[in-house]
Design a protein that fits this description.
CATH class of the largest domain: Mainly Alpha
CATH superfamily of the largest domain: MetI-like
Structural class: alpha/beta
Number of helices: 18
Distance between the termini: 49 Å
CATH architecture of the largest domain: Orthogonal Bundle
Shape: elongated
């Protein structure tokens, strides 16, 4: 029997190791029909590649172009369809990749705006026209692409009047040279063109880095005034947003593995230095860690308050039959929150509830996770309260204690001891749930690691470090809870 179990486990492991590993050879567009294609979600490559699915191709969609590249390097997909200039940077930075000579599709880049925002659209088009005519756009492009890179950097005039306020640009800093990070700053072609436009119009420029597929939502909701991220004008997108005049043309290309160009990737020490020490990239992890701890701690406090109130209302109704309206509201809250994904709740709060309001993203995350956690904490508290024998209420009543005093001085202390392990587990879950904060452009611990991955194209070390940091926090938290439990038990003696 043991041998059969071992054989079964071995088979499962072998299948899991080989599953998803692609082996098709892509040498032209014709080979895409039977290939596994990697694309960035929501991009032109995604739209165009979808047409090949009917012919037998498999399209795998990634939130970042760098993630698709990492999958290609790992042999999980056969190729990646992506914009030509970012593709050049990917091939230059990652080992063993090449771009097929045949372009996949031609495209035009423009700035996207909320549907109906004609006043700002006219202003941006006017500024773009002037910047094209005076050669500024060409200088910006040449500063990042071609033989004269770095020779014509854009600099804002000193006498710019910025009294018109601030324009927020939504982007995805994963597409070098159009937008990418240098330290904490987002730079690139789109960033410079946006700055030049703001200089012409008399605005400050604020750049909000987020997931690519969140850009349109940010523009539509008003969280951002415009989006610029190598955005291609398509008929489908025009149904939901407006586009400025185009400022450059590009093309989608196909990236494949080049087995003849694989280089030595170096040892672990060299990789660690490159991933974390070069350009002080470890700061992305530290910033993310700080935000993660802050969000988790504040959300936990909020969740405890909400959960306690809901639990008291529901348990009081169950025991006395009172507070019917309050109990109905609490049940509705629990049904909605526990019945919908946390990420959807986060996006609704950010893009819908606070869609037209400028609000700190950390505060949004605290509200979203706090409200979500409160629903689960409520049931934890309620189960602890309901686990206390009714005889305790009867005994307290015989001594002349009111329901309120009985609840506060007799029931709650016992209930808290009973639910402490469950509360600790909820906090651990909450701590890890904050990893989805990146969907609203917030740099949490996970997104800090993702930023490093997108720069270095090394998935292993950034992911391992992020996982290790989470593990250390959970271990420390578990140890503190155990210590608290021992102290509570000792106080009972």
């Amino acid at each position: 029997m043991k041998k059969l179990v071992a054989l079964a486990l071995g088979t499962v492991m072998a299948v899991s190791m080989t599953a998803g590993v692609s082996a098709a050879t892509v040498e032209s567009k014709d080979d895409l029909k039977n290939a596994t294609i990697g694309v960035q979600l929501g991009t032109t490559g995604d739209i165009e590649a979808s047409e090949y699915e009917a012919d037998g191709a498999t399209v795998k969609r990634y939130s970042k172009g760098s993630e698709a590249i990492q999958a290609l390097m790992a042999g999980q997909i056969d190729c990646v369809i992506i914009d030509s200039q970012p593709a050049q940077k990917f091939v230059e930075s990652a080992d063993g990749l090449k771009i097929l000579d045949e372009p996949f599709v031609e495209e035009e880049y423009a700035i996207c705006l909320k549907k109906g925002n004609d006043e700002l659209l006219d202003k941006i088009n006017g500024a773009l026209k002037e910047l094209k005519e005076d050669g500024t756009v060409d200088d910006i492009m040449n500063n990042y692409i071609g033989d004269n890179i770095g020779e014509t950097p854009y600099e804002s005039p000193e006498d710019v009047d910025r009294s018109n306020g601030t324009l927020v640009m939504a982007t995805n800093a994963e597409f070098e040279p159009y937008e990418y990070r240098e330290g904490d700053e987002v730079v690139g072609i789109d960033a410079d063109i946006a700055q030049a436009i703001c200089d012409k119009l008399g605005y400050e420029l604020e750049i909000d880095d987020m997931e690519f597929d969140a850009i349109l939502a940010a523009v539509q909701s008003g969280k951002a005034d415009f989006g610029a991220a190598g955005m291609t004008v398509t008929a489908e997108r025009l149904k939901n947003i407006d586009f400025s005049d185009t400022y450059t043309t590009s093309k989608q290309v196909v990236i494949v593995r080049d087995n003849n160009a694989i280089k030595n990737s170096g040892n672990v020490v060299e990789k660690f230095k490159n991933d974390f020490l070069t350009d002080n990239r470890y700061q992305f992890v530290l910033t993310g860690l700080k935000n993660t701890v802050l969000i988790a701690f504040c959300a936990a406090l909020m969740g405890i308050v909400i959960g306690f109130v809901v639990a008291v209302i529901r348990s009081t109704h169950d025991k006395t039959g009172t507070l019917k309206i309050g109990n109905f509201i609490c049940n509705l809250y629990l049904t909605i929150i526990r019945g919908t994904p946390t990420m959807v709740q986060l996006l609704i709060i950010y893009y819908v509830i606070f869609g037209s309001v400028s609000i700190n993203k950390i505060l949004v995350a605290i509200l979203a996770f706090g409200i979500n956690s409160g629903a689960y904490v409520a049931e934890i508290f309620r189960s602890g309260i309901m686990s206390i024998d009714n005889g305790q209420f009867e005994a307290a009543s015989s001594l002349g204690l009111s329901y309120k005093k009985t609840f506060i001085y007799v029931i709650l202390p016992q209930a808290f001891k009973n639910v402490l392990p469950a509360l600790a587990n909820e906090f651990i879950v909450l701590l890890k749930e904050t990893s989805i904060s990146g969907y609203i452009g917030l740099t949490d611990l996970t997104r800090g690691g993702d930023i490093i991955r997108s720069i270095t194209y090394d998935a292993m070390l950034p992911l391992l470090v992020v996982a290790l940091v989470y593990l250390v926090m959970v271990v420390i938290l578990s140890a503190l809870v155990k210590k608290l439990e021992r102290r509570l038990r000792s106080n009972e003696r």
